[in-house]
Fold this protein.
Amino acid sequence: MTGSVPREPQPATSLTADLNAAVDVPSPDQDPEAALAARGLVQALPADFTVGKEGSDFPAWRLGPYAFLTGAAPDTVNPSLWRNALLNMNTGLFEVVENAVYQVRGMDLSNISFLEDPTGSSRDIVVVDPLVSEECAKAALDLYRAHRGEHARGGRNPGLLAWVRRHDGHHT
């Protein structure tokens, strides 16, 4: 069929392979960003993590389709972009600032943050939510509450929700 998109991966052109081979990225064990991306992990998400979508046969979000992101970059992919994708696979609940800022990564294309008052003066939390679906936001809030114990249960409720929209135009 003329004009159809190939369904099988195509090999890199020699130009692409040569240009990608010239990109210098640190090995994972020498990459200073790897330690930063993993720092503060409270609870990792399983590789097959899925958020269901109410009233639909399709999920709101799945990590499974990203399982190919392992190892070295194929010659068809810029190694710097591959490295960034690997760093983004650090998923789960993270403590960013002790007893103050928590973040859930990997439940959507973006991250959701939960801000607590570290002084304890306020029992409210601020939620900065750029997630795509209500289901993903609820799953993230449930994960946060499950691991913050008394800090999240029995009184710590969203006092302010900063809903930040995704910018689809950045991807086109």
Observations:
- The longest strand covers residues 92-97.
- The beta strands are 41-44, 50-51, 61-62, 92-97, 101-105, 112-116, 125-129, 158-163.
